[in-house]
Prior knowledge:
By secondary structure, the chain is mainly alpha-helical. The chain is about 65% helix and about 5% strand. The chain has helices at about 15-30, 35-50, 55-65, 70-80; strands at about 35, 85. Helix 1 packs antiparallel against helix 2 (about 35-50).
Amino acid sequence: xEYSYPFRTDWSTEEVIDVVSFFEAVENVYERGMDREEFMGxxxxxxxxxxGKADExxxxxxxxxxxxxxxxxxxxxxxxxxxxxxxxx
Length: 89
């Protein structure tokens, strides 16, 4: 992609990698689809790093602004999907 992912300077290298992995999962859902369980695992790790709703919204909004992919909509669609579903936006 031709944009940079949002991250915070106080995160560890592992946390940055895991947040980028979540945003790559959001891209995958839009571009080719992804298994629900894998996506939700990455989302749970993202939430462990960014537990606050306000911070989550701010970071996801930053990502959506540069990528045009909505992490919020991807998470909502995955939550509504059946347990072993392959979901595409």
